[in-house]
Amino acid sequence: MWSHIVFEHPATFGTMALEPDKKKEIIEDLVTFSESKEFYARIGKAWKRGYLLYGPPGTGKSTMIAAMANLLNYDVYDLELTAVKDNTELRKLLIETTSKSIIVIEDIDCSLDLTGQRKKKGGKAMADDEKERKEVKEESSNSGNSKVTLSGLLNFIDGLWSACGGERLIVFTTNYVEKLDPALIRRGRMDKHIELSYCGFEGFKVLAKNYLNLETHPLFDAIDWLMKEVKITPADVAENLMPKSPLDDAEKCLWSLIQALEEAKEEAEAEATAAKKVVEQSQDGGGVCSENCLAEKASE
Ligand SMILES: Nc1ncnc2c1ncn2[C@@H]1O[C@H](COP(=O)(O)OP(=O)(O)OP(=O)(O)O)[C@@H](O)[C@H]1O
User: What are the DSSP calls for 134-172, one per residue?
Assistant: First the structure.
């Protein structure tokens, strides 16, 4: 059912724009996992680890998965949940995965209706494991030919797949971590939550080295200052640092980034001014304006 292609993504942790401490922590976590066969056997747990990568688009979630695969030399199984017919098919697919693999479900919030809070009893979320398992069982037996359900996925993470032997990582990505069902991402299922965020100056320096082979430049100070003022994704920084013609030298690319940062700064300032105006108007008019209404007015 899986089709095989040779994985040749060039991304590594070395080429990733990421705070150095964070990078070190993630690498250590991965390497420790991959060398812990005996440890997992001793504590009686399946040799698996779940990672949740979350953050805005263009912050490097997919890039990090490639870097993980290259670091550990694991195979990547990219699972498109919306194309999986039902829980039975999901089970089959997962049993076919080999050890030393990373199973990836990208944009988990969009894949399926996995995001809502699950059934609540007496107004309280089903928190403890026993209740959770009972619910999973009920849902699974009702699932019939229906699409993959949250419980199908939880079942797989906790049960069947764990019993397959060999080491496996499972990686979920999302742009909206707050939308996810807490049961899906609790520790034990998603052991390590990694936030990928906007580009800082340290991240920029990695990209400048990769893209322009520059370690320092007089324009770096201006970029450092601007990056503290506005948010920009590593993807946008990378795009600006990419030469667009054979005549583009490093300085031209740096100016292109500075221009993008300045435009973003002007935009943010214009939005802030508009929002301030709305507040002043609502105060003058004596009207009471909710946060939502302020946001709506500011965007008008
Ligand atoms: N942290 C980063 N380090 C280096 N390059 C990055 C980083 N983040 C993004 N990029 C660059 O931007 C491109 C898009 O990034 P990527 O697809 O990894 O983002 P993403 O967070 O997975 O986005 P989405 O949420 O839209 O899937 C990559 O091909 C890469 O060139």
Answer: HHHHHHHHHHTTS---HHHHHHHHHTGGGGG-S-EEEEE
Q: Which 3 state secondary structure label does DSSP give 33?
A: helix
Cα–Cα distances in angstroms (integers) from residue 21 to residues 15, 16, 24, 186, 210, in the given order:
15, 13, 5, 24, 19
Residue nearest (by alpha carbon) to ligand 1 atom 14: 58
Q: Which residue has the higher pLDDT, 283 or 178?
A: 178
pLDDT tens sequence across 64-97: 999 999 999 999 998 888 888 888 888 888 888 8
> What are the residue ranges spanned by the domains of the chain?
20-195, 201-299
Cβ of residue 63 lying under 6 Å from some atom of ligand 1 = yes
Highest mean pLDDT among 38-52, 199-213, 268-282: 199-213
Which ligand 1 atom sits nearest the alpha carbon of residue 53?
Answer: 21
Which position has the higher pLDDT, 86 or 131? 86
Cα of 134 to ligand 1 centre, how many Å?
Answer: 39
Which CATH code fits 20-195? 3.40.50.300
Regarding the beta carbon of 26 and ligand 1, being less than 6 Å apart is answered no
Of 11-25, 134-148, 161-175, 206-220, the least confident: 134-148
**Distance from Cα 64 to the centre of ligand 1, integer Å:** 8
Regarding the beta carbon of 199 and ligand 1, being less than 6 Å apart is answered: no
